[in-house]
Design a protein that fits this description.
By secondary structure, the protein is an alpha/beta fold. It folds into 3 domains: about 190 residues, Rossmann fold (3-Layer(aba) Sandwich); about 190 residues, HUPs (Rossmann fold, 3-Layer(aba) Sandwich); about 100 residues, GMP Synthetase, Chain A, domain 3. A 9-stranded mixed β-sheet has the order 2-1-3-4-11-10-9-6-7, with helices on both faces. A 5-stranded parallel β-sheet has the order 14-13-12-15-16, with helices on both faces. Strands 17, 18, 19 and 20 form a 4-stranded mixed β-sheet that branches. The radius of gyration is 26 Å and the shape is globular. Bound molecules: xanthosine-5'-monophosphate.
Length: about 525
């Protein structure tokens, strides 16, 4: 997209995506690619700088991941992080050893001393806390390298060859626990690689629109619009690129939150594109009748969605392209492929290729979520849509434990709307990354007025997280929770108890099913 590109070679570390996000936040385009990339592929990528990530291995382990040494002949600056630092040292002729004593291994926050005028460390204090996680250390530096930082048990916490612009850090600059990590990464990009930072959503918009026009030509495009951030931004971008040759099919499966369907429709009302709303709530409820098991619910919703979508697209005649709102984390995650399936996520944008199109367009494929939101603002989408928290494809069906009925949906919609309304009124939206109400399958005894009730329990869930892979429950103020609880019990018939979920992920997941 721009001339400035950082290549992040992936050695399997747990913070790899975070490195890519940090680089993008600093307005430099980057891609995370497998370390098995050939030297020709690396050259074709044309990196302005290369970062080797951390990884779970030891460089001397049999089959430990490595990289073609020709990468050191490209004249490109390199930053190795943790395993990447050890690998760089080993491949360039240094020595790496397992830390013999437990004291020499470092895990967690570590006081580190920086002692050089290297451009990598410009503006950094003499001492600060870094986040370490390593069992090996560099016992002999390769030729041309000098130590740039030390900790109590590691004299080579950072190393550098200023002449060749090769650097390594034993700690993780990408995690927030490393106090000056962002500055160090910034220095690598702006001081060492001498980049200017021209990766902005304004430039992305221009390039993406041009590329979409080139690819689609005079063809027509179909987009499955879920109303989520990704597909909405995808729609707005395609609207700009091809206007009325875009048709958006919005399958309202009846499992949306209160007023959500109307809001989605309103957001696209003034645009040139063709917007088709299919009210399929009854069909979906029919398919879900009596179904209790979470995976079965997900499967049926996914299948029904495709069926409705196929029927609608058949009615529209020949359409050459199918657009999907795939974003970068989806691409990275499907590349990894070995993670256990905890829940089969049904992304309503993720239709199978065999629907019979000439091609697929995925204009958000290289963007992170926060970038997608920025692009949405750039494209004048309403803030309510752009800053929308994640909402699962199967919708409220997986927030109702057990069977789904119209009555339960109505209860949940109201309770959830009250919770969200109160979060906004209290200015608490920023404190949680996702919050919602769920309907438990529990009924319990209560007393309302002078009478006994035997009604449902609603659970409130709010989580704070960076990546949704792990999450902590959000400490919402008691008085606030009290207000929400009182309102729900007073205003939503059928509810006499409100619970607040205080479980992190793991062991729980964010959603209930
Ligand atoms: P879990 O429940 O797995 O959720 O901890 C992590 C994040 O993913 C969202 N989620 C989904 N998103 N289709 C989606 O598009 C799904 O089937 C799905 N299930 C969970 C969830 O809301 C949370 O943000």
């Amino acid at each position: 997209m721009t001339g400035e590109r950082i290549l992040i070679l992936d050695f399997g570390g747990q913070y790899d995506q975070l490195i890519a996000r940090r680089v993008r936040e600093m307005q430099i385009y980057c891609e995370l690619r497998p370390c098995t990339m050939s030297i020709d592929e690396i050259k074709a990528f044309g990196p302005s700088g290369i970062i080797f990530t951390g990884g779970p291995h030891s460089v001397y382990e049999e089959g430990a991941p490595t990289v073609d040494s020709a990468v050191f002949d490209l004249g490109t600056p390199i930053l190795g992080i943790c395993y990447g630092c050890q690998l760089l040292a080993k491949l360039l002729g240094g020595e790496v050893e397992p830390a013999r004593s437990a004291g020499a291994r470092e895990y967690g926050k570590t006081e580190t001393e920086f002692n050089s005028g290297s451009p990598l460390l410009r503006g950094m204090g003499q001492r600060s806390v870094t986040w370490m996680s390593h069992g090996d250390y560099i016992s002999r530096l390769p030729e041309g390298f000098v130590p740039l930082a030390r900790s109590a048990s590691c004299p080579t916490a950072a190393i550098g060859d200023e002449h060749r612009r090769f650097y390594g850090v034993q700690f993780h600059p990408e995690v927030r626990h490393t106090e000056e990590g962002s500055l160090l990464l910034h220095n690598f990009l702006y001081e060492v690689c001498a980049l200017h930072g021209n990766w902005t959503m304004e430039s992305y918009r221009e390039t993406a629109v041009r590329e979409l026009r080139e690819k689609i030509g005079s063809g027509r495009v179909l987009l499955a619009l879920s109303g989520g951030v990704d597909s909405s931004v995808c729609a707005a971008l395609l609207d700009e690129a091809v206007g009325e040759r875009l048709t958006c099919v919005f399958v309202d499966h009846g499992l949306l939150r209160k007023d959500e369907g109307d809001q989605v429709e309103a957001a696209f009302a003034g645009r040139k594109l063709r917007f088709l709303r299919v009210d399929a709530g009854k069909r979906f409820l029919g398919r879900l009748k009596g179904v209790r098991k979470p995976e079965e619910k997900r499967k049926r919703i996914g299948e029904e969605f495709i069926r409705v979508f196929e029927e609608e697209s058949r009615k529209l005649g020949t359409i050459e392209y199918l657009a999907q709102g795939t974003i970068y984390p989806d691409v990275i995650e499907s590349g990894a492929g070995s993670a256990a399936v905890i829940k089969s996520h049904h992304n309503v944008g993720g239709l199978p290729a065999e629907v019979g199109f000439r091609g697929i367009v995925e204009p958000l494929r290289s963007l992170f979520k926060d970038e997608v939101r920025k692009l949405g603002r750039e494209l004048d989408l309403p803030e309510s849509l752009v800053s929308r928290q994640p909402f699962p494809g199967p919708g409220l069906a997986i927030r109702i434990i057990g069977t789904v009925t119209a009555e339960k949906l109505a209860i949940l919609r109201e309770a959830d709307a009250i919770f969200r309304e109160e979060m906004a009124a209290a200015g608490l939206q920023g404190t949680a990354d996702q919050y919602f109400a769920a309907l438990t399958n529990m009924r319990s005894v209560g007393v309302m007025g002078d009478g006994r009730s035997y009604d449902c329990a609603v659970a409130l869930r709010a989580v704070s997280t960076e990546d949704f892979m792990t999450a902590d429950w959000t400490r919402l103020p008691y008085d606030f929770l009290d207000r929400v609880s009182v309102r729900i019990c007073n205003e939503v018939p059928g509810v006499n108890r409100v619970l607040y979920d205080i479980t992190s992920k793991p062991p729980a997941t964010v959603e209930y099913e």
